[in-house]
Amino acid sequence: MRNVVAVMQRELLSLFWSPIGYIVITGFWLVTGVLVCATKAFTPGQPAMLRDVFMWTPFVLTLIIPAISMRTLSEEYRTGTIESLMTAPVTDTQMVLGKYLASYIFYLVMIAGTLIYLVLMAIFGDPDWGSAAAAYLGLILVGLAFTAFGVFASSLTHNQIVAWILGAVPLMLVAWFAYFIVGQVEGWMREVLQQVNIMGRFGEFARGQVALDGVVFFIAAAFLFLFLTVKVVESRRWR
Amino acid sequence: MIEVRNLSKYYGTHRAVDNISFTVADGEIVGFLGPNGAGKTTTIRILTCFQPATSGSATVAGHDVFTESLAVRAAVGYMPENVPLYPEMRVREYLRFRGKLRGLDGTAREAAIDRVTQRCWLEDVINRPISQLSKGFRQRVGLADALLHNPPVLILDEPTVGLDPTQIRETRSLIRELAQDHTVILSSHILPEVEATCQRIIIIHKGKLVASGSPSELRERISEGAKVIAEIKGAPDEIGAAVRQLPGVTNVQAERRDGWTRLAVVAASDLRETIAQTAFTRGWAVRELHRDAASLEDFFVKIVTGAHEQE
User: Is the distance from CB of A51 to CB of A203 less than 8 angstroms?
Assistant: First the structure.
């Protein structure tokens, strides 16, 4: 556990040191700000609502989260620091977990910034605290899975931009494609798409429902990709 | 302390390390010598548990590198080639991070950091970001990191590459000093480097171990008889003919050099005294007479060029 924390602290230091971290975080806040305006969350005479903002957030996150995690392993490969790390008495699992947690904490800080809209809601109206809590739970869960996938993408390459593309493109495909196509197809394809329909699953949280199968889906996805990341890191030793 | 048995490593079909065996005793300083691409770094990476061997086994400090990897890593201080560091961290931050990974807590960690900063002359840069450090200082940070947990075994891959002459001398004397309480393996492709610091040299070429022994042992093995260099006043033909008649002479080269004759005499025994007497009785002036010790450099070059028979 101490090793996990040590790796995590170092990773956080790098994230908050690098300009990329700040670009990502401001980019995200800017886009959510635009979303708040575009979805007319605060229309005079209408009930103030963040539901549409929440609905669109995972689309944004498919691009943002891989940018947070793209450096985690690819930069270690590129600079060779992976060698000092993998020859220290740290297991590959501890190393991956530490890096994952750092990216995830950075994500949580970023998400926490959007709480300002909730505060505005409370000032100008009467927000539905229950559904807001469910939506944030949804964001916390989506972040778990997306971050794991981003770290996995980073473990595959030496180049952080390639890591970002490898992370963002599949997430976008699954999030957008599954969401728009799921109603158009029949049979087994529909079955599969329904299972991996991230937006559909998140939508339940955005509407204020905590769906247990959604909770399980996101946590299981996080475990799966963390496991795969550890395997990729281990396999790199053999090359 | 370190035992390597029949170690081989393939990258695909390329054989990087080919059936190497050697042992390193407690407290020894051993140098891996070989041209670039000889398999030094690969061997070191196997010993430090960065990469597994394809076949064979190795133990470090009594632990198997494959099955007890974490115990080996805890016992080894390793400075990888080119010393990879995190440029965004300050030296102290980096050493703290490494100390945590080494399982050092609070006060013990700070004490260890103080000890290695002193030992590696890092006091002046301890609060500077690593990205601003010169190559020499980065090398010292790498060394400080390797020493942090006071490991019984130190493994240094090309510790002086890229340093200026003063830094090289400082690093060498530091390594010699460290050998008093650590077992040290270092690698280099420069012979004088290894000769100056190590008690024993292991020469690796094309993945194979071609020679091993102390510098003087290696020198003895390669000195084919004794070679004497002399400069004598007179004509090369006359002097050459006279020297060729001396007992045990196998080869004489004589050439004119600004009025003097430079001789290179190879014989079964040391002929310095005989040559001096000959010159004296014939009334020739002598301005130089010395024995040419076979140099390790020649040996190394022979091995590298493939002239030496493979064992």
Answer: no
The alpha carbon dihedral of B88, B91, B93, B98 has a sign of positive
Distance from CA of B102 to the nearest CA of A (A): 7
Of B84, B170, B255, B36, nearest to A84 by C-alpha is B84
Counted domains in chain A: 1
Report residue B65 as tokens.
């590198």
Alpha carbon distances (Å) from A134 to A131, A210, A219:
5, 6, 16
**Model confidence over A91-114: pLDDT tens digits?**
999 999 999 999 999 999 999 999
Report the C-alpha gap between B135 and B137 in whole angstroms: 6
Contacts of B51 in chain A (CB under 8 A): 237-238
Cα B88 from Cα B90, distance rounded (Å): 7
pLDDT over 60 at B42, yes or no: yes
Domain hosting A37: range is 1-238
Assigned token pair, B56? 């064979």
What pTM was computed for the model? 0.84
C-beta of residue A4 within 8 angstroms of C-beta of residue A94: yes
pLDDT band at A88 (very low <50, low <70, confident <90, very high): very high
Angle between helices A51-69 and A129-155 (to 10 degrees): 20
By the CB < 8 Å criterion, does A20 face chain B? Answer: no
**How far apart, in Å, do the first and last CA atoms of chain A sit?**
28
Residue at A72: amino acid letter: T
Contact A65, A107 (CB under 8 A): yes
Structure confidence by residue, pLDDT tens digits, B113-128:
999 999 888 999 999 9
* B206, B308 Cβ separation under 8 angstroms: no
Residue B131's identity, in one-letter code, is: S
Q: Is 0.90 exceeded by the ipTM?
A: no
Q: What is the DSSP letter of B128?
A: S
Cβ atoms B286, B232 nearer than 8 A: yes
Residues 6 or more apart whose Cβ sits within 8 Å of residue B123: B117
Q: How far does B227 lie from chain A, in Å, by closest CA? A: 47
pLDDT tens per residue, range A203-236: 888 888 888 989 999 999 999 999 999 999 999 8
Joined tokens for residue B73: 């890593």
Beta-carbon separation of A89 and B11 below 8 A: no
B238 closest CA partner among B258, B261, B259, B257: B261
Count of CB contacts below 8 A, A vs B? Answer: 70
Q: How far apart are the first and last CA of chain B?
A: 25
Q: Which of B78, B88, B103 sits opposite A18 (nearest CB)?
A: B88
The tokens of B192 are what? 């004088």
